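User: Structure with zinc ion, tokens only please.
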Amino acid sequence: MVKVCCAKNCRNFWIPNTNLTFHTFPWSNKQRLEEWMNVVPSKSRIGKYSFICSAHFND
Ligand SMILES: [Zn+2]
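Assistant:
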């Protein structure tokens, strides 16, 4: 499966040998999930297999 960032206006996708990492949404942690939802403009459908790239996180 190709990992593509689901954030609006972000066209990052996973390619080897980059610092970019991709994360699935923390469905089991509602508090964190809400934080991530705030980071990601929820224009697109966020599903179980949606990814968000590390470009949206400061650490
Ligand atoms: Zn992204």
